[in-house]
Every structure is written in structure tokens, then in C-alpha cells.
Amino acid sequence: MIEFRSRSWVLLSSLLVLVLLGGFLITPFKHGQTPVDYSSKHADVYKSPRQNVWAELTASEAASVNEYIFKEHASLNLTKHPKSGRDNFIFGVETLKPNKTDTISYLYNDGPSPPERWAKAAIAQNFDDGPYMAYYMVGPLPITEDSVMLPLEYIFNSGRNYVKNPVQDWAAIQDFALAMAENVSDITQELLGATANRADPSDPHGLLAFPRPSRIETGGFTLWMQFYRPGMGSNARTLLPQGIYAKVDATSSDVTKWSVGQFYYNGVLYESAGDFRTALADPNFERTPANIDGPWTDTEDFESKPPGRELPPPVSIQPYGPRYKFDRKERFVSWFGFEFYITTAQATGVSLFDIRFKGERVMYELGLQEAMAHYAGDDPMQGGLEFLDTFFGMGKNAFELVPGYDCPAYADYLDVEFHQSQKTHFTPNSICLFEYTADYLLSRHTAQYSVTASRNTFLTVRSVSTVGNYDYTIDYVFYMDGTLEVKVRASGFIYAAFYTANNTKSEDEYGHRIHDALASSMHDHVINFKADLDVAGPKNDMVRMALEPITQSYEWDKPEHPERNTMHLVEYKVTEEAGIDWPKNSGEFYLVYSSDQKNAWGERKGYRIASGSGTRPHLTILNSTTLGDSARWAEHDIWVLQNKDTEPRSADPLNYFTPHDPIIDFTKMADHENLEHNASGSSYDGDLVIYFNVGAHHVPHSGDVPNTLMHTSGSSVKFVPHNFNDRDPSRESVQGVRLQLKGSKSGGFAGEQSEPSGDLKNRMNRRTKGPDTTKAMYFGATYDKGIKIPLEALEPSMEEYVSEEHGVTDLSYNGSAAGVWHRE
Amino acid sequence: MIEFRSRSWVLLSSLLVLVLLGGFLITPFKHGQTPVDYSSKHADVYKSPRQNVWAELTASEAASVNEYIFKEHASLNLTKHPKSGRDNFIFGVETLKPNKTDTISYLYNDGPSPPERWAKAAIAQNFDDGPYMAYYMVGPLPITEDSVMLPLEYIFNSGRNYVKNPVQDWAAIQDFALAMAENVSDITQELLGATANRADPSDPHGLLAFPRPSRIETGGFTLWMQFYRPGMGSNARTLLPQGIYAKVDATSSDVTKWSVGQFYYNGVLYESAGDFRTALADPNFERTPANIDGPWTDTEDFESKPPGRELPPPVSIQPYGPRYKFDRKERFVSWFGFEFYITTAQATGVSLFDIRFKGERVMYELGLQEAMAHYAGDDPMQGGLEFLDTFFGMGKNAFELVPGYDCPAYADYLDVEFHQSQKTHFTPNSICLFEYTADYLLSRHTAQYSVTASRNTFLTVRSVSTVGNYDYTIDYVFYMDGTLEVKVRASGFIYAAFYTANNTKSEDEYGHRIHDALASSMHDHVINFKADLDVAGPKNDMVRMALEPITQSYEWDKPEHPERNTMHLVEYKVTEEAGIDWPKNSGEFYLVYSSDQKNAWGERKGYRIASGSGTRPHLTILNSTTLGDSARWAEHDIWVLQNKDTEPRSADPLNYFTPHDPIIDFTKMADHENLEHNASGSSYDGDLVIYFNVGAHHVPHSGDVPNTLMHTSGSSVKFVPHNFNDRDPSRESVQGVRLQLKGSKSGGFAGEQSEPSGDLKNRMNRRTKGPDTTKAMYFGATYDKGIKIPLEALEPSMEEYVSEEHGVTDLSYNGSAAGVWHRE
Fold this sequence. Notes:
Oligomer: homodimer
Strand content of chain A: 25-35%
Helix content of chain A: 10-25%
Shape of chain A: globular
Number of helices of chain A: 11
């Protein structure tokens, strides 16, 4: 919650256009349009077994909470139309996810009623020493006489429900930044051929400035601002840094006392604009080429016609509709044994709850916690840059998906609503749900007289969060054997560094030169997820099962081998809360076992936390100066913790404001508490929770221009059943074929030669009831006739969607370019 | 080459049915059928720029080589119909791949003629001390008066062209094994309810025995044989071990002197069959349940009907045909800038040669070298089991692919021929080639007034090698940005261990119990590939680019931060031949840079060796007793070596015979030779070669029954361009769409609010030539009308294919069950 996608807040996180500030505070909101139901392919109405108790507040719930706060808490002195941070106002409201312990009865014990419903409100509130952001809980809902508003403290291990807001006067900051730019317009004109354009911040010939804040422990900021060009057609701002940097003393809470100090250009630090100007007048002043936009930042090539591009590529179709059941109202999905609820939050986007497989509990919760990008460099901008993207809102910035491209044409699309500034905003079609058949099989075997092949068709829940320059495609993928995968793929524009031609250092110390006056800058993406595994129930143990070399003596091996160099398994139980890294040589299996449930063979039911695609790194930097204590979860790959109602998340967006005194300090969660619930005297109930990271060490190269590519940026973790069932459960669900030689041969190894008995034939015939000549025996449904595929299924017609410039002032619509294709 | 798929050889590698031996030696061969050209979708005839100089011998070339050897080398005393290993005969012939240095002129310098063509012959040859397998080179081809046959030594760093063949009399071994089984038939009947069936080795009620050899340094073997049941319908033999093990003293070269010694059952070792029998007569004898086949080994479930299974899954179609160009004769492929030749070998399957991207050299050669599976366990079978699967032939065991399942219905299928025992064998449709559009995009970005999406369509070359119980799906994947991926996915049956109920040890020391009387046994798959990278030419350097934490002081950072905890890049050049492991925390980029070619920005053109999917482990066991020196490449993840004509491969199939004195010892290749070709006095020319491993630490669990699943067994390495081009080259090739708001807005960050200028509109219109109202602007071809899809494209009709039991004696056809669907 409390996400600051709007430009006022963005400034302080260095993603801001200099000259636009404060828009949503002064623009009247219009009501959004009605969400579009893009899918009506389910003929039957499907009902989830229970309510989605994690569902986002409805518009009317949100309105009632806002109204309640206004009316019943007049002492807060709230305004509906704040002019600055010195006003008190409701920033936003959303569902306060119920405590897990309060849901158990309803979900798993046939409890009659769902847990109480509460809202979480984020309120901008001024105290004696200035503005704060504060969290409150409001409930129960619906609002009645019994409803109350309480400080929301119990989920923040700082013990506080508030964070000091260093930003007091957005309009003044806007003016300050613009004045700075105008004061050096002679310099920028001379060196960059451009000045700021107060009237049009998107003027491709104008200049912008993005600031990078350094938080000062005693309060306030030091800012380094760098000039940028807006980019002409492709939103390539972060590829267009301009190599002039200005330092701003922003330690005072009074913007009028801020001052511009040093300038930095071409590797040289000037104490003031005046010094910079004087140096520039010297005929020997050393210039470096400017970074100019051009076709090189275009994300599309409409002209090139290499052989083959005249034909459309293969495409996936689903002529008979989806094979999952979907309760759109409760956002409940059922697919070949998997069942789960979908919900969203402004900060974190999509989360899944109560994931079961074949009727057994697998996870209570699965969802993103925080997405960090931490840069390094030797210039004042890249040198200290980092983002914690829930601050901007991974949910709020999940825009419309492009049908047939982001997801197959046949996907189901879900709308998202959120409630901010007393309005309900919605983004249509920003989550999709679809099955896909992989290009490879799930399983196969060729025998001497038969071959069997099972298709790998999987289910994906997808959203894409575009936070400024970067696009994160976030997938939750389900496979027929009970495997879940969490995958993040990055695309969009990198945040690049200005390339200084006479830089005395090696360019390759922080990245590579990637254009005339542009260098990449290395950065770490570390993206944290919570997986509250309840493997066959809440009592679980985390075990590291290590493959270890050993020299061993076996009785049967003598006398030839008195001892033998071999290997074996050694199990190490994780006995206290810990951060664990992926093992050397992948030499350990990380297993979460049920403490009390075993399969038919007496093995503990388990899930394995396994490598998926790409790398899953943790932060390279040790004890980052920039991050402080705001993101300590980034320091190891996988964390095992006690699950607690008081620790529902590893991070909070407001950590971005106070990194050295965060409202949630992860080190206080991962504090070595006992995980041995079976030990005598242990008060721990055995319910553990996993936090894990995906991401990438990203050293962009020329191929990242214009955009990072997703086939190489993907990073995933898989949760793989490990003795969870008695046998591979995908056999019951999968579609495939067995090819059987006519006749009476049983199956030996392929290529062998034999005269087998008649048993196989009899057995096959018994099973398939087919004629004696049966050759291809299918399991699961097959296509049985040709089909006329409408164009819409091959290439969804964007022409059917309204194209209008609705987004500018209509924040209720969460206006983005993707809105171009919303249905009329 | 020299692969021993046929059962005679298989015995000694423990994959053998006890009672079938020697078939191909005594069965008259018939000529194979004509290969089927499954694809005729390319209307235009496409010609490769050059000959495929690595192509397998044609049938007539092979025949002429065989004839030449017979006629001109009568002193070898060869027979066409060998009765045992004491006869001399030609085992097989295939192409001797030309030396790389001999191809350079033809391939890269417009040399007029291809290199000389030579054959490699494997000949079973008896010397004074017994039978050997020996390699010869025969050429040049075509055979003329100038053609010669020479011992082929120069590519084997043992200095030998031969390996001692420990197997002399197959028929006698067959008799011995069968006699052993019959001698204890009272015991097996009592404990297992079954005996060996001499007349029908596939009798599901009969017993088989598979041996595991231990090579004795002084010569010959010790064998431990375990009884198995054949399995009824699913070729599940390796899931049906029976828990009775017999030790055979096979040290003598004379099988009549072999003897059965110890027996092992239920954790107890008996000195003889007699002791075993005596113990069994004791009423207190401890039995353990038998491992009985049943529906639990079925690979198909024809009955289950969970919701959704009544509908066919999504399927990929390609209505307008492929977008690659394919010269079927030369096996040359051209696809969006990628060009390469395909060839095959009996031992190693598919290899690719002369891979170029956008006209520049990327790799000279890419192909599998060896596939190892190494087990561990505390019983006499699993305790020493290992396979080197080129011995059986990854190429020869690449059987027919199932259309629409193993590969899309629209794939091109290639046949493979190989020449063994003086016959040309072929496997139709055993390689496929297809494009596929991934379920996710290659790149995307949402801006304020536009969104752009580019499809990720990739090209795959696929084969599946089924070596007894296990199926390896081997993919070479090409992406539009120049990335290559090598991926292996394992399926088929695991090689499991008998579960002993009264085992005193922890079952979980080597695996898990997975059925009544069955346990999994841990094993390492390590699969070695060669990638002879020639990044923009042959002179390359291997660099480890490390991301390292650092505490650094920057002038612009003072006084607020006298120093800062950050990170930077440190480059370490690999200066001598070395084995390197994947780094901790993925903290290093492994880069192969051109030594002399740079991109437009002055950066060295490079390719990165990057993580793909899954894990890529090396062998857990240190200095494996079983392996000796036969597979030292398995001890590290990635190897960098000088490229030499004398070291074309990391392994040879015959290494399996003499692990302690292998014909190719990898440690002699990776022997710390200099890689600093720019150093003064260096004689090294700068052409390096990479060997790398994929695979898995496999600890199978209940979900591996009946078959291992490929979505979690996959392991891949990607070769990713790194500053290779000046910009992302996929932009020129990709298909996608840009959605643009009507009007005049330029693109800021999505969600921003601004009043931009008219530039974007003008620019877009200029590019697309579309009307002012253009909204969806496509790049690359799109579907533009509905299409009638024939059933064949959705579900290839297996009914069109002949079903006949051709395979038994017709080895020319390389008979396998998959042959069921070959076209009539």
C-alpha cells in the first residue's frame, strides 16, 4: 500500500521529470470507466468453495472507509484536496489482509464464517516536527457503530505506525528544480544544445532533470540532479543522461533554504555554477560529446525485411476454450488439481492465497514483497542509485496487457482496482490467466514396441509492472505434477550512465560503452517473494539434503574394492531462522517437509525449493551505504523464518523513506528464532515461512539497447513436489499418445531384439477397448476435426479497441498508453 | 563412433537382458526401407553456400570403404559374419570429421575446394593377447588408387588407436548367465515367485538379470548381477529390480572359467548359492517383499477424467510454413541471421558446425561429447553403477520423434543414417527443426502514450536419444538476438534400487522409498558438450568478469559519504587451460571475447557463457573409483582449452572399456597450457575451445514414477551475445506491435501526466506511412484473415502411418517402437 507512483513522490526517488509536480493534488478526478470483462468464454458459472477473504476493497467499501475516517476522525483535520505535505489527507485505503490465524477455521476446519474484514489506511499527517505518513486499521467492515480506527502497528517491527515524510512542499520543489535548470541554461545550451522547457516537459529538444537523493542521517537529503532528454518516440529517457550533474543541499525541511552547490561534468567537480561557467569560458575547456536521441532508441524496426519476416510466426490457439475453472468474482482458479485465490495490492501486485493441490495444502500465500535495483558507478547519479519499486507500486504500475502478445489471444484478462486519494482507480486487463502447451513434452519414453509422449501444458497467471523505465513480467506458473514456478523477466529501458569520453578510469569498471556518449551501469536486481509453504498442513520442517562425496567400504565390494570413492546423502535440518544461499555445485536439495504427514511409502511429504531459470542472485554489495537496513532480505538467497501474524511482509514501501530506520527491519524478523517445534518446551508451532529472491546481476551491453530482452533476463524459482504424492499425479491429467505396434510384442529397450510374449497386446487392448489394430492410443482429449480459426484468435484486432487520450487527467483510469486498446 | 547399442555389448555395461545375446551377428540383414521425406513445405529449393564437409558418409561411400578394407587389407583376415569376438570384422564406418585447420580455407577464405574426405573405421581385431577394437582412417574418398588405410592415432592422446576388448564370446556369456539363473531357480521361485524364461526374455512373469561390471586392473571383470522382471507394458525393467544379486568372477578371458560366487539378499551376503539355499531352508530366514509390476509402472492413464481433460490443450500452429531456409541435402539452415550445418555421429548424435550470426563467425562446432550417469548406493548393483552413454550411441539411439508431440506438427523432420556391420541403417524422422513462439515476449515497454511488444519466436533443432531406460531430449535453440542455448531434458525410467524392508541403514542415505519394494537411488547426470567458439573469428580470450563489493571514495560524494559501500567489475583473464565452476552468487560473467574485433563503441565483441535453466552440476564424487580417468571432464563445470586438431573430442566411447587407461584422457587435454597468445614468444594461435556440462543431481522421489518429468529435469547453458553487435539485432527480425494513442502525445513514463509536443505523432506517421488515426502499428508480418486449419496440423494422424513389426530382425531399419508411425 501507500505507493507513490504519482510524480510528486517520484521526484524524491529520482524517477521524476523535473518540471511536472503535484498533478494529482490539483487536478479534479473523474470517475473511471466501467471495467471491461474481456473474457466470456466460460459458459458455465463456476463458484469458488469459499469467499476470497484477501480480496481488494470494493469501491463501495473503500468509499465507506474514507467517509468513516473523515466523519468520525475530524480531529485529524483532514482535507480532501491537499495542496502540500503540510496538509493532512487520506493517501489511500486498501484491504488489510487478515491474519493467517484468523482464517484457519474458515479455510481448513469448515468454520462457518470468514474472518473479519478490515481496511488499512495510509494517512498523510502532520505532527509538530513536520509531515508523516501513518498507517491505520479501520474495521470491522462493513462500517457500523462498532467500527474503529486504530494505529496499525502490530505488523511493523519498528513498533511505529508512521514514517517521517521528508517531502513537504511539492510545488516549491518543482519551482526549485526548474529554477536550477534555468539558472544554468547558458551552460546547458552551450554544452548540450538545449535548455529546460517549462511549458512542455516532454519536448524532445528540452531538458529534464532527475534527482538521486542521499539521505542524511540528521534529516533531509542531499540531491544530485542529472540532466536528461525526454526521448522522442520510445520513452528512452533513461538512455539519455546528459552528463551535467548538480548537487543540491536539501537538508532543510524548508525548501526555500535549499541551495545548489557543486556541479560535475566530464569528470571534473566545480564548486558552484559560477566556477563551472568560468571554466567553460576557458578556450581549453574539455568538452565531451553529448548524448543525442535518434533511431537508436527506437523500440521498433518497421522497415527491415529479412527473409522470413514476410510470414507471421507460429501462434498458439485454444479453439475449445480454457480447461481451468474460474470464478471471476472471487478470483478463484481450479485447474487439474490446483486451486488458489488471486488478489492484488497497490505495492506488491498479484498475490496468490490458499494454494492447494489435489485437495492438500501447499501454500497459504505466495507473492512479491519488494523489487530492488541497486546500481554502482563513478558518477554522482549512478554511484548511489537504488530503487525499491513497491514504493512506486508494483500493483499500481501493472498496466494493461497487450492481447495476443503479452498473453495469448485466448487468455482471460482480469481488471484491477485500487483506491487512492479517495478515488477508485482501475486498470483493465492487467492480469491474465492462460494455459499454454510448451514446445517440449512433460514426459516421454521410447521402448522397443511402443513410444509414449505426454504434453507439457501449464497454467500461468501473469502481470507486468512497468515502473518508469523498467518492465517486470511476473509469472506464477502451475504444472500438472504439482510444481509451481515464480518467474520474473525484465524488459524495458535500462537506467544507463553518461559516457565521459575523457574519463580517466576504465569504462569497464562499472559497465560498457553502449553508444556514442552512453555507458551501461552495472546493477543488481533482487526481487523478494514470500512463500508461506504449508506442505500438507502448517507444521513443516526445512531440511538441507546434501549430496556429499564419501569414501566408503561395502561388504559386497571386497576384496576387489576395500573401499570405494562414491557419494551419499546427508540431511541437515535448519534449526533456527536463517538466510541460506544456493549451494556450491547445486549440491544441496532445499526441502520443506511436512512434520507429520507421510506418503504411502513412509516418506515425508515435501516440496523442494529448486532452481528454475537464469540466476537467482543476492546483492553483491556488502552493507550497502544507500540501503542501510531497508532491504536486508537481499543479502541471502532463501530465508526460513517462523511464520507470525505480526510479520506478514519482509518489507514496506515506506522503507524507502527511512532506510536507516525502516518501518520493517528484516533483520528483526530473521533473528535466529528456534525452528525446532518438536523440541520439548518449544513454543513454536511449526508453521514456517520462506522468503526467496529472484533477479539478476545485470551488466548491460550493446544488446540491451534499446530494451533488455526477456529470454535472457528471466529468473525463476520452482517449488517441486518431493514425495508429496505417492506417484506422479500428472499422469491423471495429461494429454498425450501411446503409439503401439500392431501385434503382440511387449516393450523391451528400444533397439533390442526379442520374441516377446503376447501379454502386452492383451493388456493394451484391455485398457483401450480399441480394435486389435489400434496403433495410436490417446489419453486426454485430442483434436478430431479441422477447425476454422477466426482472425481474432490469431491476431486480436486492436482496431476493436478505442484509441483515445483519456489518460492525462483521468487518474481514476490509471491512465497509461496501454489504455489504447481497451474495448469500446 | 563404435557404439554398442546391440545387446551383445550392452551386457557388459549392465543394460542387458540376460538371455538375449548376439542377435545381429547371426541374423541375416535385410535392406532398410527408403527414408521418408516428412516435410515438403519448402516450395523453393534453397541451396547452402557451401558443402557440408562434416556430413555423414553416404550409403555408397560407406559401402566403398567397407569394400576397400576387405579387398585391400586381406591381411586383417576379416569376416563379414563374425561368430564371436575372436573373429576379425568391421564394426562400423563413419565420417572422420575433417581437421578444423583443413576447413578454414574453404569456409572462410573463399578457398575453392573442400577438405579431403576421410572415413573412420572401427575394426574388431584379434592380436596375440586377445580381441581389440581398433580405429583406422580410410581415404581420401572417393576410393581411388591413392586411397589408404592408416591407424587412426592422432586424435587419441593415449597414443593408441586401439582398446582391449574384454568381451570374447558372447554366446558363451549368454549361456553362462542363463545357467546361473537356472541354477538358482529354486531360490528365485521361492523368494520372487519366478524363474528365468529361456524361451521368452520378455515374459513379464520371467526373470532377467542385468550385470554391473567392476573392471579389474589386472584384466577382466567382476560382475554383480541383479535379477529384474521385464515389466508388462511400459518397459519398466529398471523399476523392477528383484533384490537378489549374484557375484561372478569374470577375470578370466575364457568364459568357461568364470564362476558364480557370493549372493546378496536382504542385506545379507552369502558365500555361495549353497549357503544361500541353506539359509533359506531355515524357518527363521528373513524375507523381504518382492517388487511386483502393476499399473503403477504404466506411463499412461487412459481412464482418469478430471475436469478439463475432455478438452484438447492449446496447440501451436504455423499456417504459412516455416520462416527458415533449409537445404535438406546439405543440412544447412538459415534463420534470421543464423546459419549453420547439421550433422550426426553414431556416438554423439547431432552436432552443428560453422554457426554464424549476421555473417560473423560465432562457433565452429557445437555438439555433445559424452553423457554420464553415475549412481551410488549400498547394494551391489547401484553401489558401483555408471554409464557413459556414447558407448551405446547417443546417435544410434536417437529414434523416431512423435509428430505433434515431440515436436510441433509443422516441424521439419530429418532422417539419420549410420553404417554398422557393413550395412547402412537409418532412423527416419529422428531430428526435427521448428520455430516456436514462446508464451512470453522477447521485449516490451509500456510508456505513457505507447506500448510496444515483440514476440519471442525461436528456432529449435531437436533429437531424443533413448538409451535403454532413459530418454534425453537434446535441443539446440536459436534466438533472434544471436543467443544460442544448449538444453538437455531427461525423461524415461529411472534406474531404481531394490528396497530392502529390513535394511538397517537409513533409506534416505542414497534415495527415497518410492514403491512397495523400490527405492530411488541418487545419481549425477553430467553431460559434456563442446563449444568451439570463434567469436568474430578464431582468436579469442576467455575472461571472468567479476562483480565485487568494494568500499570506495568518490570526490562528488564528500563530505556526506567519505566512503561508500558499493560494487564494481574486476576482470580476470584466463591465462592457461583450466576447469572453472559456476561462481558463488552468480558473481562472475564468463565471457569469450574476440582478441581483435571490437564493436562500434570500442568494446570487444563477445559471447557470454550464461546460466540457462535448471542446474548445471559437476560430479559430486571425488576421484570416482568406477570412472578412473575416463571422464575427468565431469569434475568441473566449464573448461577452457587450446583448440587443436589432435584434440577434437573430450571423450571416446571406448573409454568405457578401459576407464583406468582411456583412449582419450581429458586430463591430458586440460593440462594447463598457455592461453596468452598475445604474449611474446607464445606459439599458441589464440583459438580456444570450451567444454561445458549440463545435467542434474538427481535424487528421484515418488513423482519420478513412472517417468522423470522434463519441466524439472531440464538443464541448459546459453551463449549470449555480449557487445557482439552494436545494438540489439533482434529488432530487425522480430514480429510485434506498437500501440500508439491517436493524437500528438509523446511517450513519458507510464502513469505520468504531461502535455507533450506533437513530435511523436509526426515521427510515427513518418515511419508507418499509415493514416493519422493509426493505432496498432505492426512490425513483421501478422495474420490478416481467419484460417481453416486441417486436422493434420492440430493432431497429426498416426493412422496415416504403417504399423508393422518390422523391427525385430531388420536392424537396417534401426527398429524401434517409434517406427510405428513411419509413413507408408
